Write the structure tokens for this entry.
Amino acid sequence: MKTMLILIGIAVVLALALLVAIAAADALNRDVRPTPGPTPPVATPKITRATLKNGLPVWVVTRHELPTVNAVLQIKAGAGMDGAKPGLSTMTAALLDEGTATRSSLEIAKAVDMLGASLSAVGGIEQSSVSLQTLSKHLDPALALMGDIVVHPAFASDELERDRKSRLQSLKQQKDQATTIADKVFNLVVYGEDHPYGHPIAGTVASVTAITRDDIAGFYDRYYRPNNAVLIVVGDVTVDQIVPSLEKAFAGWASKPIPGDVTAAPARPAARATGVYLVDKPSAAQSEIRIGQPGAARTASPDYYALQVLNTALGGQFTSRVNLNLRERHGFTYGARTSWAYRRGDGPFVASAGVFTAKTDSSLTEFMRELKDIRGPRPLAPSEADFARNALLRGYPRRFETPDGTAGVLADLALFGLPDSEISNYLTQIAKVKSDDVTRVASQYLSPDKMTIVVVGDLAKVRPGIEALNLGTITVLDPDGKPVVAQ
Amino acid sequence: MKLPPLGCALGALLLTAAPLEAQMLKVPTETFTLPNGLRVVVHEDHAVPLVAINVWYHVGSGREVTGRSGFAHLFEHMLFQGSQHVGDDKHFEIVQEAGGTANGSTTSDRTNYYEVVPSNFLETGLWLESDRMGFLLQAMTQAKLDNQRDVVKNERRQNYENRPYGMTGIKLGELLYPADHPYHWPTIGYPEDLTAASLDDVKHFFSEWYNPNNACLVVAGDVKPAEVKRLVTRYFGDLPAGPKHEPVTVKPVVLEADKRAVLEDRVTLPEIILAWPTVPLWAPDDPALDVAAEVLAQGKTSHLYQRLVYQEQSAQNVTAFQFSRPLAGAFQMSAQAREGYDLSHMEKAIMEEIARLAKEGPTDEELTAAKNSAEARSVFGLQTLLGKADRINSYMTYRSQPDLFNEELENVRKVTAADVKRVVQTYLTRPHVVISTVPTGKKDLAAAVPGVQP
């Protein structure tokens, strides 16, 4: 009996101890960050393909979650093909939905409104695109409208004159906006006005005034061809369902050899010693800063992925070095960032921020410090590289959340001629990047002694401070990027 | 009305569009309330392995006191500076290392905070949100406040002072609403008030408003409701409830006479803004005013676009919208006059088109287009988890119901041509505000008082 009681007693004690242990394990200790569960599998989009009779490639990703369809027609030519007529590609795109052989501008707009759809055309730097978003129940009539503006645009003279007038007015308005001036002047100085990445995509007053209907019809005839395009469809439809509708919608659109090589990468401009370019914006509350140089092309080379990690750490998100420095440590700005515009050729790398006028010189100092430090003096620590890699890898599924996002990923594959495997290859490659790789690409691609520094602000207040920094030769430009003769 | 020859093609489209079934919006939710008053809504959607965690506090700039304008928004910034257990400046770091995004925003009526993270980081997100709901002040310092004060002043410079026409909206609120109305002062605040904000203000505001019983948490995405309930109870269950507040009440805004103002700005083109006091969000006349805005000046088919931008080519752009908020609404219109035209010309055309709509009402075609657009917009709005979470939270915060998606759409479908005529006649014929923003030194371009020579 006694033994029995002791045994029971031990059992009770053990049970109590176990309960306490469970309670302790379950007690909330807020000092301990929760451990994430297992990483959910990344569902990358499955692309099915077809080719229309006229040669137009069609890529379809079927998603039935919502009764919607997004369709993006990418034409593989944009402002890079403007030649000596800046604005030509964007004017061509803008006129597509302003009238066709059988529908007026107003009739197109009314028909789109009636479907509750959105249909738009825009010219980019290396591509032009026509985008449709519709409920799937209206898909056929919506595709018919999309096909009509792509295959039968009228380019009517009165519509051209309307666009010209609006565009000339908006070119003047661009000078109201310091951010727009800064971007335009930066690209112009870095690449020069004859380079596809240097000339203003919306055109200049002279070019927009001079462009004729024949120029536009010619651009359309050369580049808007099924064999120079791809149609990307994401949404509540399968390739078998949509192809018959597309055959009808794009009937009469014929392939034709494309003159020249539209996919050729433009040459990298010659490097120059760091120079400072100032644009006056009297009584501006902030100075808009742009610092950068030609960056890198979108390729599947290891450097591309290392640059992704670099940018995430340097200026690609809130917790990046430049934002923590200029915003969180110093309070100079509402936000500072760096970005790489990946193109067929070496698109621009730029560090940018709008900063308090009185802190313009200090902001330049901090920006330059960060650009220099990451190349060697304060290289990316392994922990920073881990952080940036995690942010990229774990953040990847967000790109596929919306039909638009998915279409964007596919559009990049098409634009840069990358294989479908690049979607998963991206993850493999990012995972391989080490902090040493980041330091290597930082010193290779960032040249603080060969940068263009643009400041748009109240020069009476900011110029003396900038001069004292001795960053390089100072040139004063007007909002069009033309030198201002000293008074 | 005689249809143009190509009206037939349009008619054919109409026929294919009209008989199709009206779209139903399916956003299933589960709702529960913790003993401390925190309301929680879970929306389960496994389409992508993500979760949106979205908290709304029912406090915005409308609750600010005299001399502390902009405080609710400045306070929003403080919530990213670290709480007791999470640590200083860790919030963004933790979310971004998880591959997520985070942000917050403040309006006159509410403040929201969210993170969208991979669904295996659900618990991390709830830990972050619960820590700053319960343990913010333990980590608050004067240095953090001073830093974010500078950041917010820069936000004001960037989005208002240095932005073309950026100061017009501030003036509009001041003229439209009386000095004691919660919508009178700007959410971004006046610079001197931002300077005056103290650490005591931060402490007081937190204790007063940042309590579970004044908040609503929506969790939307790749989650199981039972698991969410378990975790939310664990992380938020022991946070104490705070004071209860009576809802804000305001009298309907009535202007005795037109109010006119002229602002000078560093802009190329003059812009006119007109605003009429109307009805609050979800009031019976709200959807008809939305339709009126669409017919008057939204998109290429609208009356004023066709008249001023397309035919006459005197305007660079025109806009109209019914800006309805929980306590009051305003119908706002604007036009930018091209070189060679002044704002009197814009105002005259706007008033004439309002009069015409009041007399004729919209066409059947215009009404159908407006309804179809509303339907499509509602569906497109369901594409992101964050978009859904924010909508659910607005329904919960202001109406205590998680799913008004279909009711809202149904209210647009019920609008008749007679309703549109009536609301235009009722609201847009009353005294209103007219602001001319002109290029510096060019007051002659401002809209003159009708009948009075400038």
User: Anything to note?
Assistant: Chain B touches chain A through 89 residues (CB under 8 Å). Residues 1-19 of chain B have pLDDT under 50 and may be disordered. The radius of gyration of chain B is 24 Å.
